[in-house]
TrEMBL record:
Cofactor notes: Binds 1 Fe cation per subunit.
Residues annotated to bind Ca(2+): G18, D76
Subcellular location: Cytoplasm
Taxonomy of the source species: Eukaryota, Metazoa, Chordata, Craniata, Vertebrata
UniProt GO BP: arachidonate metabolic process; lipid oxidation; lipoxygenase pathway
Cofactor: Fe cation
Primary localisation category: cytoplasm
Protein's name according to its UniProt entry: Arachidonate 12-lipoxygenase, epidermal-type-like
Stretches that traverse the bilayer: none
Pfam entry (one): Lipoxygenase
Length: 600
């Protein structure tokens, strides 16, 4: 029985998406496979349609295969999707692709999931190819693994007016560029603050639940940089703060270095100090915060963690796997930007070596220490905020927005996962899913099971939790650390990239001491330049949940995605209303500002 099939193919919209090479197609159905030959020459921004008679009926369509043949002039082709209209009453079937077709390889795309394991050989071949393209590398010992090489892909705040104020100093721990360090004190710090009167005051606030701390011990002992033959300096401060009834967070005491055995106790700086001494102490804290923000909160917890998730996904889940389809929109440009960062930002003779006090090796030491502290709970805002005692702090706008965004993403994930997994048993029996989980924890994170990351997935809830973590990490987590850089670090004294004099050992501080400690003119210009680059908004930005690629076919996933988009729109509007009544709007987790992946 002859059947007439109409095939439509859509090419990507970018300048180099089309190709003059011939493309061969195969259709696979329940009753057989048909080689349609070299039918297509997919030119840029063009939908190609072909009509062909097949001498037998394929039955229900299951799979389409593509192969771009080489020629003297060889151009890669970005295929968005393929639709096939079969004979009779068969409806049009959508095969999402959204992939580059390269070299002379065959690419397979299925119409749906694969409950009967009909496409096992295609899945295995795809993963074998991916594992060759996406290879785990090794950058520095003691760090989570990066990608070794990138596969071929064509692809304000007016801080200067208020930076001296204690209000703004405390506010940044809650809602600034780095809201990940603050925690409620559960005991007086191990680093004794000295002075009995001060200890009594701190203990009173501790008992009342108003005492908070920011501890930079991770920087202790880090070797400081030498820039153009001049020694730079690093401190490891401890800041104790009090939460006021009106929600303001105000510093009570700053200790710039931990105590040393056999040395006099470090100097304590109080708000009652001479103004220049107190200002210099706060400036040292801001410089230390710059180091941990850029390396721990932004690079490690945002960029490098997203890279682990994306590489593990590419190596373990074939393109027809529902979790692959759910996650792939959140990996756009992540590997490319991370390779640029390793080659230009934190590389030998890179930006950190040239201008930052922790460059020339200290930054690697910090990343190694921070990697050893990565916990699963710290990537999940409900757990992280509970562990840090911030759940009930209403002035933590980061905390409020992170919780709400997490809940919206979680509902979206539950909705999508529920379409493909109907029981805990289905999760446990999915060997590709279990391999993906192990690839993240054992390989990418270098054995992080002792820090709470799962080695296997035993239930639907556990699966939804880790997928929610993955999406939040690649979107909200990164946005909260990325979007504030221009606001908070463009005014150099509020976040100095380096300090040129050692921490003060007395409160006899002059304005000249502060100026001489801050970056010099060349360093300040360099900081302004790379912060402008790192903190810029993408000119063509895809906001969270707004990707146009349709990796899923059928009405179910589209309905779940639409509900996700509607919930994000409601949150966006409500944040705008809230921010209209604030002196300092908090926008970093406003859904329309959160990018769908780590791209910069």
């Amino acid at each position: 029985m002859t059947g007439k099939y109409v095939i439509r193919v859509a090419t990507g919209d970018s300048l180099l998406a089309g190709s003059t090479n011939l493309v061969q197609l195969w259709l696979v159905g329940e009753h057989g496979e048909a080689d349609l030959g070299k039918l297509l020459r997919p030119l840029r921004e063009k939908k190609t349609e072909v009509e062909i008679d097949i001498p037998f009926h394929l039955g229900r369509l299951l799979l389409v295969k593509l192969r771009k043949h080489k020629s003297l002039l060889n151009f890669d082709w970005f295929c968005k999707w393929i639709t096939v209209q079969g004979p009779g009453n068969q409806g049009e079937v959508l095969f999402p692709c959204y992939s580059w077709i390269q070299d002379d390889r065959i690419l397979s795309r299925s119409v749906s999931d694969d409950p009967q394991n009909l496409f096992k050989k295609y899945r295995e071949q795809e993963l074998e190819d991916r594992r060759k393209a996406y290879r785990w590398g090794s950058w520095k010992d003691g760090l989570i693994l990066p990608l070794t090489t990138c596969p071929q892909l064509t692809s304000s705040v007016q801080v200067c007016d208020s930076w001296k104020d204690d209000d703004l100093f405390g506010y940044q721990f809650l809602n600034g560029a780095n809201p990940m360090l603050l925690r409620r004190s559960t005991s007086l710090p191990a680093r004794p603050p000295g002075m009995e009167e001060l200890r009594t005051q701190l203990n009173k606030e501790l008992q009342a639940g108003f005492l908070f701390e920011a501890d930079y011990t991770l920087l202790d002992g880090v070797k400081p940089n030498i820039i153009i033959f001049k020694q730079q300096y690093v401190a490891a401060p401890l800041v104790m703060l009090k939460l006021q009834p009106d929600g303001r967070l105000l510093p009570m005491v700053i200790q710039l270095q931990p105590p040393r055995h056999g040395c006099p106790p470090p100097l304590l700086f109080l708000p009652s100090e001479p103004p220049m001494a107190w200002l210099l102490a706060k400036t040292w804290v801001r410089s230390s915060d710059f180091q941990l923000h850029q390396l721990q909160s932004h690079l490690l917890r945002g960029h490098l963690m997203a890279e682990v998730i994306s590489v593990a996904t590419m190596r373990s889940l074939p393109s027809l796997h529902p979790i692959y389809k759910l996650l792939i929109p959140h990996f756009r440009y992540t590997m490319e930007i991370n390779i640029l960062a390793r080659n230009n930002l934190v590389s030998e003779y890179g930006i950190f070596d040239l201008v930052v006090s922790t460059g020339s090796g200290g930054h690697v030491d910090i990343l190694q220490r921070a990697t050893a502290c990565l916990t699963y709970r710290s990537f999940c805002p409900p757990d992280d905020l509970a562990d840090r005692g911030l759940l009930d702090v209403k002035s933590s706008l980061y905390g409020q927005d992170a919780l709400r965004l997490w809940e919206i993403i979680s509902r979206y994930v539950h909705g999508m996962v529920g379409l493909f997994y109907k029981s805990d048993k289905a999760v446990k029996q999915d060997s590709e899913l279990q391999a993906w989980c192990r690839e993240i924890t054992e390989t990418g994170l270098q054995g992080a099971q002792d820090r709470g990351f799962p080695l296997s997935l035993e239930s639907l809830d556990q699966l939804c939790h880790i997928v929610t973590m993955c999406i939040f990490t690649c979107t909200g987590q990164h946005a909260s650390a990325h979007l504030g850089q221009l606001d908070w670090y463009s005014w150099i004294p509020n976040g100095p990239c380096t300090m040129r004099k050692p921490p003060p050992i007395s409160n006899a501080v002059t304005e000249k001491d502060i100026v001489d400690s801050l970056p010099d003119l060349h360093q300040a210009r360099m900081q302004k330049t790379f912060i402008k680059f790192l903190g810029r908004r993408q000119p063509v930005m895809v906001a969270l949940g707004q990707h146009k690629e349709k990796y899923f076919s059928g009405p179910g996933p589209q309905a779940v995605l639409q509900q996700f988009q509607e919930e994000l729109a409601v949150m966006d509007r409500e944040i705008k209303v809230r921010n209209a009544g604030l002196d300092l709007p908090y926008e970093y987790l406003q859904p329309s500002m959160v990018e769908n992946s780590v791209t910069i």
